[in-house]
Design a protein that fits this description.
Number of helices: 0
Shape: globular
Strand content: over 45%
Helix content: under 10%
Radius of gyration: 13 Å
Oligomer: single chain
Structural class: mainly beta
Order of helices and strands: EEEEEEEE
Largest sheet: 6 strands, antiparallel
């Protein structure tokens, strides 16, 4: 039985933050607002920026859903890897626009999205299921 992992079981962080309106926790929503600033996070422009959640306890993960920014800069959520714990479970992924389900099975206490690019990483919505 697949169910959403509750947001109160997640602590979000990211490799850097542009400003107080782009903090990692903004993406933890079931109602993404993908127009800036909405529910969008943003790192500084850097090499291989990342965004992650630490989970309270160890969870079975079946998939995640990511939402990209709708009004510009959609390349910021292109060419990224998804890790469940230390396991690479989805490689070279891109969210062309809107929300996208990414199948990613594992059992862990953290989920990380890591860009393969030198750029800003922006995520406007995140949900995990297990």
């Amino acid at each position: 039985d697949v169910r959403a992992i509750p947001y109160d079981s997640m602590i979000a962080s990211q490799s850097s933050t542009v400003s107080s309106i782009t903090v990692a926790a903004k993406a933890l929503t079931l109602s993404p607002s993908p127009r800036w600033p909405g529910t969008c996070t943003a790192t500084q422009a850097q090499t291989r920026p990342w965004w992650m959640v630490k989970l309270t306890g160890v969870w079975d993960i079946s998939h995640i859903v990511l939402t990209n920014r709708a009004d510009c800069c959609q390349q910021r959520l292109n060419n990224f890897d998804v890790y469940v714990g230390d396991k690479l479970c989805a490689a070279g992924m891109s969210v062309p626009g809107g929300s996208m389900r990414i199948n990613c099975k594992g059992r862990a206490s953290e989920i990380k999205i890591q860009s393969r690019r030198v750029d800003v990483l922006t995520i406007c919505g995140f949900a995990a299921y297990g």
